[in-house]
Design goal:
The protein has 4 domains: 2-101, GIY-YIG endonuclease, CATH 3.40.1440; 120-253, P-loop containing nucleotide triphosphate hydrolases (Rossmann fold, 3-Layer(aba) Sandwich), CATH 3.40.50.300; 276-516, no CATH class; 528-595, Alpha-Beta Plaits. Helix content is 29%, strand content 21%. It is built from 18 helices and 29 strands. Strand 9, helix 6 (178-189) and strand 10 (195-198) form a beta-alpha-beta unit. Helix 1 (71-83) packs across helix 2. It starts with a strand and ends with a strand. The structure holds zinc ion (2 copies). The site of one zinc ion (ZN) has 8 residues, from loops. InterPro entries: P-loop_NTPase, PriA_3primeBD, PriA_3primeBD_sf. It comes from Synergistes jonesii. One of its GO terms (molecular function) is 3'-5' DNA helicase activity.
Length: 597
């Protein structure tokens, strides 16, 4: 009797073996018994004749007679499962809609021949959005079967609206609701759609005959997933284009490290001195705050440019990546920082001083009357945040500025830009985090002020400078009149280091940054892998890494966190395999995160 290996969408890597009535190919959905329940799984190899034993259970039902996915997408799922150390089951679950894992029958996929059959990469970098749009439009108009993707749903919609009606009829805009998405997902397989325009959610649509993938703003952080498995969609789409033998068109206001390294595109926006105002925070007037130890620099040029922009009815953004009134609160008597009872992280002082919120787990308490450590009464905040900035903007400048808004995005959703425009026809000053940059599309501010540019680049990650640079670069260009905007950068070391690239273009930035990363053997030159496991497992994994002579180090903060620097994924997979066995379902599985660029 044939035996079948099937991958269940679950955290373990082990495929499960079942008996089957007939010989089955790979990549088919089957319903299999699992414990007392049953699940929809995918066959991962052609079935083989095997010795019949009593212990092996039978498949309950074969759902697909023919592979339900385009061959390139199925190959991508297997590659993703292997390379990302997550297994085929979890890889499939990550890239496919939940509805796929049901008994719902799917019409046979239309295998439209791909007109290219050869993988190629084109790149298109520059601040002018209309030029990029024009180029992408040719992908929709030509003979390609194209996925045209943008980092945010509203950007996809904006592009879609530029397409003439006749062209829209041949393609589709990827919908937002899960039901509509499932319908569209099915339709994509039918061969009726020539192209799909969408957000990252459309990146793994099963478009029949895929022959072009367009990715705008490929360097944007919005392509990164926020939960396990962590990946940047570009890493997967590059491989998908290769497997599909399709064109890959990468564009944006700046390239990612990998794309810069590969194609060495030329930055044309390399003389930006007129629009940039660098200010030393040391020379800035410091604003004293009630019950705060530190100050916030508000420089004369920042005020001057902001007032000028507001007088002309323009929008102004002041950006600071610190929520609340102060990032931390501490006792002046014993010097202790107040920490979260649940997770031990520092807490920020917020809601204009009524409560403390944990910076990590989100727990919140009323501000204590005295220090929990020594009973001292003098509690003081440090590192002023947005609420303090807002207070300052309103009080000190109230004769100059009307309409000062604070957007902290507590609800994780930005207000609608068009709505704001209606509400404040004369513009406003908005104080908020970097998430405000998305509002540049509708409001295109005349001035943007970075209150503490150094803080943006201070993260512990190897790419924190690149992220800061990309953010400030975005603030210089995003939106209709981006190239007219004044950008004020307050910093302790203005216009030096990574900031110099703002004046002279991302070419300069990447040349320096990549030289440094190559010396330190960091991505994109060498992959970094983070393994998070329970302490006991972490110890065992470390031992095995030692035996294998791998280069690794343990995190200083977290005993369960190990960082590995290696290109030998196959060897690492062998080391990790025992920890991802189905036999260990009773405990927590380790998670592996990959940093490639
Ligand atoms: Zn104290
Ligand atoms: Zn906490």
């Amino acid at each position: 009797m044939p035996l079948v290996s099937a991958a269940v969408p679950a955290p373990w890597w082990t495929p499960l073996t079942y008996r089957s009535e007939s010989v089955l190919g790979e990549g088919l959905r089957v319903r299999v018994p699992l414990g007392r329940d049953s699940r929809v799984a995918l066959t991962v190899a052609e079935s083989e004749e095997g010795a019949e034993t009593e212990k092996i259970k039978s498949i309950e039902r074969v759902i697909d007679e023919k592979p339900p996915l385009p061959a390139e997408l199925w190959r991508l799922i297997k590659w993703f499962g292997d390379t990302w150390f997550i297994g085929t089951g979890l890889a499939a679950k990550t890239l496919l809609p939940a509805k796929f894992f049901t008994d719902e029958k799917l019409p046979e996929i239309r295998q439209t021949p791909n007109s290219y059959q050869k993988f190629s990469v084109e790149s298109l970098y520059g601040a002018e959005l209309s030029k990029r749009y024009e180029y992408y439009r040719t992908a929709a108009e030509g003979g390609d079967r194209a996925l045209i993707l943008f980092p945010e749903a509203k950007l996809a919609k904006a592009f879609w609206k530029t397409l003439p009606k006749g062209l829209q009829d041949c393609g589709a805009l990827w919908p937002l609701s899960p039901q509509a998405r499932w319908k569209m997902w099915r339709l994509a397989r039918s061969g009726e759609l020539r192209f799909i325009v969408g957000s990252p959610a459309a990146a793994f649509a099963p478009l029949a005959g895929l022959s072009a993938i367009v990715m705008d703003e490929e360097n944007s952080g919005s392509w990164r997933t926020q939960s396990h498995p962590l990946f940047h969609t570009r890493s997967l789409l590059g491989v998908r284009a290769d497997f599909a033998g399709s064109r890959l068109v990468l564009g944006g206001i700046m390239p990612s490290s990998k794309c810069y390294l590969r194609a060495k595109p030329i930055c044309l926006e390399d003389k930006n001195d007129e629009r940039l105002v660098f200010v030393s925070s040391n020379d800035s007037q410091s604003a004293e705050f009630e019950a705060l130890r530190d100050t916030l620099p508000l420089s004369v040029p920042l005020i001057r440019e902001s007032v000028r922009a507001r007088e002309e009815g323009g929008w102004v953004f002041w950006l600071l990546d610190r929520k609340g009134y102060a990032s931390e609160i501490l006792c002046e008597e014993c010097g202790n920082t107040l920490r979260c009872a649940r997770c031990g992280s520092s807490m920020r002082w917020e809601d204009s001083k009524k409560c403390l919120s944990c910076n990590v787990c989100g727990g919140s308490i009323a501000v204590p009357q005295s220090c929990p450590n020594c009973g001292g009464r003098l509690l003081i905040g440090s590192r002023p945040g947005l609420e303090a900035l807002y207070e300052r903007a309103r009080s000190a400048l109230k004769y100059k500025f009307k309409n000062v808004l604070l957007i902290q995005n507590k609800e994780e959703k930005l207000p609608d830009g068009k709505q704001l425009k209606r509400e404040f026809p004369d513009g406003a000053l908005i104080v908020g985090t970097r998430r405000l940059l998305s509002l540049c599309d509708e409001l295109s501010p005349a001035a943007v002020g970075w209150i503490d540019a150094d803080a943006e680049a201070r993260g512990a990650e190897y790419d924190s400078k690149a992220r800061a640079f990309a953010m400030l670069w975005e603030s210089m260009w995003r939106g209709a009149e981006g190239c007219e905007r004044k950008v004020i950068v307050q910093s302790r070391r203005p216009s030096t280091g990574w900031q110099e690239g703002l004046r002279r273009g991302w070419g300069l930035f990447w040349r320096r940054e990549l030289k440094e990363r190559s010396e330190w053997e960091l991505p994109p030159f060498m992959p970094l892998i983070k393994i998070s496991a329970e302490r006991g497992d972490a110890r065992k994994i470390s031992q095995k890494l030692d035996e294998a002579g791998a280069e690794y180090w343990a995190s200083e903060e977290d005993a369960g966190e190990i960082w590995v620097r290696t290109k030998r994924f196959a060897a690492l997979r062998e080391i990790l395999k025992p920890f991802f066995s189905i036999a260990s379902t009773k405990k927590t599985f380790p998670t592996v995160s990959l940093y490639l660029d």
